Amino acid sequence: MKSSTFFTLCSLFISIFSIAQTSTELFETESHNSANFTDNGVIFNIISYSSTFDIQANYPNTGWGGSANDNRYIDNSSSAAASASFGIRTTSNLFKANRFWLFLSNTSLNQNVVGTVTVTGKLSGVTKFTQTKTTGFVTSLGSTNGYTLIDLTNLNGQNYSGIVIDELQVTLGGAYTYAGLDAFTWVKDTGIVLATNNDTKAIKNKLSIYPNPTRGDFSIQASESSNAELYDLSGKLIKSMSVQKGSNAENISELPNGTYLLKVNSETQKIIKH
User: Fold this and answer.
1) Contact present, 145 and 63 (Cβ < 8 Å)
2) What is the sign, positive or negative, of the torsion defined by CA atoms of 158, 94, 214, 211?
3) CA distances from 28 to 34, 144, 247 (A)
4) 214: which of 47, 73, 132, 188 lies 20 to 30 Å off by Cα?
5) How far, in Å, CA of 64 to CA of 183, rounded?
6) For the chain, what percent of residues have pLDDT higher than 70?
7) Residue 196: its pLDDT value, please?
8) pLDDT tens readout for residues 192-251
9) pTM for this one?
10) Pairing between β-strand 126-133 and β-strand 85-89 as defined by DSSP bridges
11) Of 13-27, 102-116, 137-151, where does mean pLDDT reach its minimum?
12) Model confidence over 82-110: pLDDT tens digits?
């Protein structure tokens, strides 16, 4: 009972001090052909699974910022192909995807073709949601410069905007071989995914930190080798560590006293330095 109450209090504490910030990336300051972008202090990598996706900046006024044309976006103009697929992934902060706009066509930029778009959210490589959109696509330039809104608050009647992920993957199907993505709206999360009361035992078996609170020296007991990341309560990455299966000695004496969050894979625990 005490253990359950402790984790409940931790969850409430983290919820209070977590900072969720909504941001829309328009890519207007990003470099042409770049395979990453930075928004609200977070670096996102553009992962090309099939076809090559990167920042496109060669065709002014062919993007869509949600209310007007803009100049830069993610696309695969150099390698449009069937089943094209890419991901937007970050390793510094978890996030929630809200909405984005897609220009969809075949290789000849003909939008009046039949295709599908599958949107998948992942966390540490595990699929948290996936949904395929088959209708409702824009087929001409019209009022949105040819872009279709993909709204994760209501995608095929489901709301996925509250699910914490570290990667958003987009996969084309049917006759769609080209995609341009713009106006990516997302919510910055501090990387906090604490267990529910029912998961307390599993967390304790996989990851433990002692002593906690600590004056600087502590040990991480991990069930497998992995990377560990230490964040402050604003979600800023403070330190990265490599942990091995078993006991790992660490030290944070150089850091100010306070509360930090240690993330190992999809598990996050609070650590207090005093």
Assistant:
1) yes
2) positive
3) 12, 17, 46
4) 188
5) 7
6) 85
7) 36
8) 443 333 333 333 335 678 788 888 888 888 777 888 888 887 778 888 888 888 888 889
9) 0.66
10) unpaired
11) 13-27
12) 999 999 998 777 899 999 999 999 999 99
Structure tokens at 214: 């600590």
Token digits of residue 240 = 């990265």
The count of residues in the chain is 274
Residues 104, 175: Cα–Cα separation, whole Å = 10
From CA 241, how far away is CA 249, in angstroms rounded? 11
Q: Say yes or no to pLDDT of 6 above 80.
A: no
3-state secondary structure the chain: CHHHHHHHHHHHHHHHHCCCEEEEECCCCCCCCCCEEEECCEEEEEEEEECCCEEECCCCCCEECCCCEECCEEECCCCCCCCCEEEEECCCCCEEEEEEEEEEECCCCCCCCCEEEEEEEEECCEEEEEEEECCCCCCCCHHHCCEEEEECCCECCECCCCCCECEEEEEEEECCCEEEEEEEEEEECCCCCCCCHHHHHHHHHHEEEECCCECCEEEEEECCCEEEEEECCCCCEEEEEEECCEEEEEECCCCCCEEEEEEECCEEEEEEEC
